[in-house]
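User: These chains co-purify. Model them together.
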Amino acid sequence: MGVRLLGLGARMAILLVFAIFFVAPILWLVLAPTKSDHALVTSSPFSFGSFHNVGLAWRHLDAYSDHLYRRWIANTLVYSLSATAITLAISIPAGYGLALGKFPGRKLILSLTLVVMIMPAASLVLPIFLELNALHLIGSVFSVILPFSFFPFGVYLAYIYYATSIPPELLDAARVDGCGEWLTFRRVALPLAKPVVALVFFFSFVSNWNNFFLPYVVLADSNQYPITVGLSNLLASTPSFNPAVGGGGQTTNIFKPELALATLVAVIPVAIVFLFSQRALVRGTLGGSVKQ
Amino acid sequence: MEATRTRGLRVPRGAPFVLPYLPFLIVFGIAPTIYALDLAFTNAGGGWVGFHNFVRAYDDFRFVPAFKHILIYTIVWLGALMVFVVGLALLLHGRATRVSATYRFLFYIPGALAGAAAVVIWLFMLDPTVSPGSFLLRHVLGASIFAQSIAPGNLPYIFAMIAFWTGAGGWIVVMYGALNTIPPDLEEAARIDGAGPFTIAFRLKLPLIRKWIAYMLILSFATGTQLFVEPEIVQHASFGLVPDTWSPNQLAYQQAFRYADFNVAAAIAVDLLLIGLLGAVLIVSRSGLFRAED
Amino acid sequence: MKVKRWWLVPASLVALAAAVAALVGASTGGASSGKVSGSIEVWVDAVRLPVAKLYAKTHPNVKVKIVTYDGDGNGATTMQTKIQLWNRTGKGWPDVVFTEQANDPVWMGQPPFDFAMNLKGVFPASLLTGWPAPSLAQCTVNGRLVCLQDNLAQEVLYVNKKLMAQFGYQVPTTWQQWAALGTKVAKEHPGYIIGTVGDSYGHWLYLWPDQCPISQVVAPKTVRINSANAHCTRMASLLDPLIANKSVSTVTIFSPDFAKTYGGDDDKVLLMPGPTWYAKDIFGGTLKIPAGQMTAAMPLRWNNEPPVTGQVGGGPWVVSKHTKSVAAAIDFVKFATTSLAVKSKPGALSPGYPSYGPAATVWLKNLNKDPYFAAPPGAAMKAAAGLVWKGWSMVTYPDQPIWSNSVVTQLIAGKSLSSLLPALGKGLSNNAKAAGYRVVNK
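Assistant: Joint model of the three components:
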């Protein structure tokens, strides 16, 4: 019994240490907009400033280039959700087919997917840009949404999930009952896929939300930027990060508290998505659906 | 070859489900990869030059240092992932799911931050004069100002720490999800048989999530050797104290966009691809990742 | 067995193209006769955005599309990336670009990027005489005038008049007096500083004014880099004891650490060589030094040698050679650089010292009225405008990162500047060669 408690204590201690490591910087981020630029540097990292400062920081942020920040957030929502919807529609069935199907080229597609995932993304951006240009998509939101929809990581997640946790007997049972392939998928495999759907949904969403390089290259209009490109644009407008801006940076009123606030607000949608995906993730064991 | 009869047509099982994915794979995956491979062996005019670009890449004065940096980094990074991610996932996969869910949320939150967003945070976390972790910076890194925190010798460890901070949470979630696919009856049976928590964790759960761990290792090895975001971030935040060609991927980026030399950039990309593939082949063959029945 | 579905490739592309054909949109502007009109696309950073908007508002005949981007600052490769992609597709170039990197026009004006228009003969010659000669020289690449500097960033000596009087010190006029003062300060008032070498542009502040030849284009694609030259070594020897006794800091003025240690109400900045744009924005804004203390004095000179000074930035405007609305583009640049509606007052529209002389005169008059300064700083700035040493050329590769990671990192580790000059020279040479330059010593 004593050993048990010691083990429990050790477990709690380890989890707590790591929790502090992950959370302390975030806590700093949450508290940063409450302080003035000067106070950020001089007062304690976890001190609370005032809500007034938060309001001030928001007003400065919002005033940047005519509410450009709001547009960036809106853009990112559109890109991420649209692309994730397409991703789910193509990746879950693909993972299913690759895991539980038997057709020529199955291993080839798996290998190619893996190779493409390992190829450094920066080297693919130029060819993708040229393809998009050939399709006259440069300048349209599809130049971002379509490449985002290609999410091989999600296909692999679905593949591994289906390969390891759905016994083929389950599907055979459905087929014996007279279901065709599509019905088998819809009635048996899809409902059981809730955990991996949740996983793919938020990994895809977060990957799209955080993607910098592709939109940076293919989007020319700052009004179309997602928040990643926008944030680096903001960073470049503040002298603390970009002395080249010279004295003028002071008049755009973007300092460390505004940057912290911009970062914080950009994190909120992702946090919400995570919270919602959590519930579906916790569920998901089979429990007695196979009669051996 | 098993098939189903649909209106007299023999359709290989599973094939139609993969169909919608294929155009995307080709247009955004395979075609660009072939194009990039082509660039690595041709010159700016399109003529074939064999391995000339690879030689030129190797001769660049930043090439060897970059690969040296990345070697140390990858070792530290993979080690941390293997030990801490799997370990933390196992620790979390106990009873109290609400507590566990809270921890997973906390671990994951940094992963939600976009690259430029992490700049703001780490600029301060690494500055001993304002960081909440200044004690650690002073005593572990021996740094009393920011520029000392990012001294060249510290960089592989700093980048591994930042990469871990942003990346571990996601993998912990995946591993946790993987652990959830283990039928609880198995665990119950083992417990009844008298197995303690360590035995259950290492001899029951760990082998059953082998495929997921293999996947994590393959991807992390590749993303590790392709490190770009963290050194780029710290380079900006430090006004250039860290070079913009610290990692090979950064060098490739500079070659492509600063020097307009897409061919050398593609050569470096192929180098990184081969390294990643080597790792993948090794891991796939030893873990049976592609075997459908398991 | 072969993959059977290769026909999916063209099929999918056709499907995609058909699906999005309706999204194609392109518009071209047309120029008409009479008053300046046309349609231009202007890329600016956030600081120049008010200028672009003012132009659009006051010139209804011109259709102006404004794009704000990161200004290509801090060694970024934004513009190089974009221009390459536009070149490859043969379209998409903006008409006017503002960049914060003073060396951007050098590669913009040469192959393979080949983006900048030659302004000689296109921009009104009568206005061009308003720019100081060093500024026009900086914008001249292979005989072509590829840019116009928006604002000058000549180096002056900032003086904390209040503290200097308080300690009974004389304002130095030469580097030697400045160094002697540093030794005195370290003894009598330790903790106070007379400058810093830790900025990413430290070499522009200390090596440029001493005519150190480490960035001197002597022929097309040939650059002289000689960090062992006497001009470099003597300045390093002057600085080393000051760095050692900490009267010259090794921390950048933009770090929180600097602001905390040397700024605020009990600030410790006695003297600071710095560009014109430091003025109120850095001392008052970033460092929060109270009003009534700072002013600017003539830049330091080496003993009684002819006075020269350095420069820190000064962003240029570049006109694209692909523009279809030349008149409107030139009109825009003219407005942004010379119009008094933009340049008369220090503020949001004109934060930096205007490079156009007549506008600078008005700007300075207003700057001198600012109650922040202990004494009018304008005279020193004006005098320094023409003193920027012409022997430091802009090159296609940025040299700030090289200074930062081969010198500053080691200065912080305790090495002397003199011992780091060879590494600086080597780093610059390597980068020059990688960028296609031939490197010479003499």
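The beta strands of chain B are 3-6, 9-12.
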